[in-house]
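Kindly draft a polypeptide, keeping tokens residue-aligned:

***
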Amino acid sequence: MRIPAHSVCTAIRDDIVSGVYERGSRLTEELLARRYGVSRVPVREALRTLESEGFVVTRRHAGACVAEPTEQEAADLLEVRMLLEPLGAARAAQRRTEAHLKVLRGLVRLGQERARRGEGEDLRSLGGWFHETLAQASGSPGLIALLTQLRHKIAWMYAVEQPVRPVDSWAEHGAIVDAVARGDAERARALTAQHAERAAGAHRLRRPGRPGRRTAPPPRVSSSQHGVNIAGARH
């Protein structure tokens, strides 16, 4: 069975974000194909996609390499996200479905429970799912794609400190969902803008070559894709 290029792209992107491939390192088609257990064709397609997203650059005499973003480029990403996330929330207030609301409320409930217990690792994942679902609720494929790419790149460039009071942070998530549920686009926009601005202050720029990043080889690429299931959530 031919592994689709988007699955290979996801695997390489995840490894770039997690630090398996250091910034500036070469990405050869042959080694990548061997690593992920695929042919060179989907690897080549994946590298083209990653180059268009800014994760990979092609250098003369070196070929494909992991990009080396500047501090200014990293700062610009946070600023763009602070503009786009409120827009996504406003669109979600106008276009969300009951399935989106069910998942968002379930995530807020879980987040509030984990926050009270101080379970930081769970909160990180739940926060990511929350913002992904909020973006999906916007009903705008272009905006969803932009926000998804921003989340990947920001996770690559920044380490995020846990909020001092995670219970307050999840109360903000709850207020955003309430505004979305009521169809109040302006309130959803304003609350998300405030939340995004506060969250930006917890981001700390990663330094290239920082120790402690994951280096173990990943399993072979699977053709299955894992996304947020808006038909239901684990409660």
In short: The chain is about 65% helix and 5% strand. Residues 90 and 185 are 4 Å apart (CA to CA). Residues 210-220, 223-235 have pLDDT under 50 and may be disordered.
